[in-house]
Amino acid sequence: MKTRNLIVILLSLVMFTNCYAQKPGKKDKKSKNAETEVVATPENDVPETVDEAPVATEECLINISLFNESAKNKQYADALGPWTKAYEQCPGANRAIYSRGREILHWEISQAKDDATYQKVFDKLMGMYDNRIKYFGKDERYPTAWILGLKGMDYINFVKNDPLKKKAYAWLEKSVDGMGENSELEVIRLFIVTSNEIYKAEPAHAEKYINDYVKVNSLLDKMANNTENKNAAIAAQVRDGVDALFVQSGAANCETLDGIYKDKIAQNSTNEAYLNNVISFYKRIRCTTSDVYFQAAVAAHKIKPTAESANALAEMSYKAGEHSKAIAYYDEATKLATEKMDKADYQYKIAQIYYTEMNNYPRSREYARNSLEFNPNNGSAYLLIGIMYAKSRSIYDDPVLSKTVYWVAVDKFVRAKQVDPSIADEANKLINTYSGHFPTKDDMFFQPQLKAGSTFFVGGWIGESTTCR
Hints:
Elements: H1 2-20, H2 58-72, H3 76-89, H4 96-110, H5 115-136, H6 144-158, H7 166-179, H8 185-201, H9 206-224, H10 232-249, H11 254-261, H12 264-267, H13 272-284, H14 291-303, H15 307-319, H16 323-336, H17 340-356, H18 361-374, H19 379-390, H20 405-419, H21 424-435, H22 441-445, E1 455-458, E2 464-467
Antiparallel strand pairs: 1-2
Helix pairs in contact: 1-2, 2-3, 2-4, 3-4, 4-5, 5-6, 6-7, 7-8, 8-9, 8-10, 9-10, 13-14, 14-15, 15-16, 16-17, 17-18, 18-19, 19-20, 20-21
């Protein structure tokens, strides 16, 4: 009878081992098409992998089957014994030793009654990850980089008396660098949170923290905009949280950035990637009036003009009062930009220069309309056109006809809030202000062409039709 039972167990084990090697646990699931990167050069805290795992014994296979079944049913007390034997006797036999082992050790830590026991289990958990890297670090779907992410998360969640958690920070960074867009979102989040904590305790970490933020922000942005990523919405939420954390940290202060990058722009004057990262970062933090930002832009533009560098040079020229140069650079930025929203923004800035600095309404409207071609929902462009119309009474000598400009002006204000509800309050104020200047009934009585409800063509540089009211 015992022999028969043993045969049944072994047969089920063969099926289990073959299946389990193909089926990840719930905590290990990843896209089948995900491309991963193995950390090729092991460092002091990353054990070397082995080419071949030792052959599992019959006893080992039985223990794997026993702990797996118990852990699957969350009977961790029953799973601990056979798991320990399998882990000690055949650590390279099956990945289940580690995927289930993580659950089992989490439970064992929760049962610790004193600090000594707790530390012993914690050390065993950390060592388990080293062994997983040793035996399964070359796994195509869950390589060393992915494993280090789990190790870093568990270190942060369970370590005691280590406020900065620098070990975990290093593991999480390797994980993020190795896995890229296939990184676990929690690994990315904990990586930047840990970097933030280190920065708060050690201000010298500022530059590294800023670089970490730039890296993570770019990565999360790609994940959030990837239509094939089922977690895109969550990635966007994590990105917004990371942005808020960074702003609150104080590292985003323009003076702090200048102190970090001031002497490094000259040192990296031929490093295109470095300069463009600095430009992009300054723009994101809204430090675009900084001399350091301009220096980086000038250097980058000499190497290879980009929309970012052209925009920076436009900002610099405008600050210096060189308005024609600013317009030329904004036009160049428009041509180099790949996103329509950016093109719309650059064209709108030109429209503002023609309006505020050159008092050239026709040219300003031309660029405002260009902006609307790229972004039809740019309500600010409609507001600008409307304001210029309202200031153009001089196109008529007749005092009654000169009031018709307010009709076309209000038309633009109404259109502005229709396409962009966020500026509705501003648009309504303008509507209320200029509606009070419409021609009165008495005014219209002496102008037969101004009949309520009829169409009227407002001439001059405006050249638009409107409705009399």
